[in-house]
Design a protein that fits this description.
Helix content: under 10%
Largest sheet: 7 strands, mixed
Number of helices: 0
Number of strands: 11
Order of helices and strands: EEEEEEEEEEE
Radius of gyration: 13 Å
């Protein structure tokens, strides 16, 4: 079992950058096939942001975020990062890290373990 722990959220002005981290407490991420980032605002469903999976570290992104967000991991596979650039007010959300073996990376319900989330607020 693994408990993802997110960090790095905060308040940033539009156009700024933040880097979120997802650390593995318990097993390393190597045991799991995929690590994903999702975000959620009140009243809306959790939205897929990005994922990284497999030994090759193949990355996937929500189409609307390509070019601004980058997911990566360290060589020891204990931490996954989400670099967010050119942030917009509409990026404001709670960002969650999830791990598992989903058949569909975009499906939040197919991930096994979730972190507690980290708030990202982008001011205009």
């Amino acid at each position: 079992q693994v408990q993802p722990v997110e960090s790095g959220g905060g308040l940033v002005q539009a156009g700024g950058s933040l880097r979120l981290s997802c650390a593995a407490s318990g097993r390393t991420f190597t045991y799991y096939f995929a690590v994903g980032w999702f975000r959620q605002v009140p009243g809306k469903e959790r939205e897929f942001v990005a994922a990284i999976r497999g030994s090759a570290g193949t990355t996937y992104y929500a189409d609307s975020l390509k070019g601004r967000f980058t997911i990566s991991r360290d060589n020891a596979k204990t931490t996954v990062y989400l670099q967010m650039n050119s942030l917009k007010p509409e990026d404001t959300a709670v960002y969650y890290c999830a791990v598992g073996r989903p058949a569909s990376l975009l499906s939040a319900g197919q991930y096994d373990y979730w972190g507690q989330g980290t708030q990202v607020t982008v001011s205009s």
